[in-house]
Amino acid sequence: MTYVVTQSCCADASCVIACPVNCIHPAPGEPGFATAEMLYVDANSCVGCGACATACPVEAIKPDSTLTPDEQPFLAINAEYYECFPHQPRPPLAIVAQQRRLAHQGSFRVAVVGAGPAGLYTADDLLTHPEISVDVYDRLPTPYGLVRAGVAPDHQHTKAVEKLFRQIEEQPSFRYFLGVDVGRDVSLAELEEHYDAVVYTVGASADRQLGIPGEDLVGSMSATDLVGWYNGHPDKQDLLVDLGTERVVVVGNGNVALDVARILTADPVALETTDIAALPWSALSRSRVREVVVLGRRGPAEAAFTVPELVGLCGLAEAGVI
Asked: How far apart are CA 212 and CA 224, in angstroms?
């Protein structure tokens, strides 16, 4: 039995550290790691211990014996990586992080603005130093940012990273201040007065406009708005989403574009078992959409989506990909 990476995964390479036989690549420090859309298990070296699956925070790794029909293509995807990029056998190597110490003694308070993944990973790293306490601010009443409001509702395996976030929250020097809009409810100057450092971990606050005629017409909206709508983002629940047309055009061909295409064509019965918001689910169950056209300015070789997202879209039993 071998283990298989079955989706785009996180960037902390927990599985690489856990693997006792060094069969997961590209590893930190190797060419291609920083830009890899996913990691790959070498079936010829894997001993089937399952350490990688236990370590993975997003449940992306499974034994080959449990793969669903939709996940079977990942066997070939993992194997193809080693055909294209063979790795020389070398002894197992545990990655030992260099011990870092604070340059100055004393206790320090840090404010982190933004309770999404970047903010929580920042807090986790800071809290490795017992001298530091961290307060995380967010304008929304709930944490986790785009993990909660950006990841597609049928990608619960990706949202499993929330388990790691909860472990971070349980640390005694960690606090939340939710429902606080930095810049409106409290100023940066006020934070700087009370903290030794302020770290901003927020994303773009506005969408990039296409700059083409008609983009402000009814029925035209940004992916940020649509994704926030079906994920239950409190700012997007009053959005008018017209699903009474048979054709939808998505401009762009990244992973979010494929997420949107998949959600708009998925079986509402299957979506009902996810954490999709109630009102959007009701609207999708009455949808008349029968075709989604994904537009990209370049050819398939330059497409922005990752292979796992394409595999997921092709795996829809109720939809065909042309």
From this structure: 18
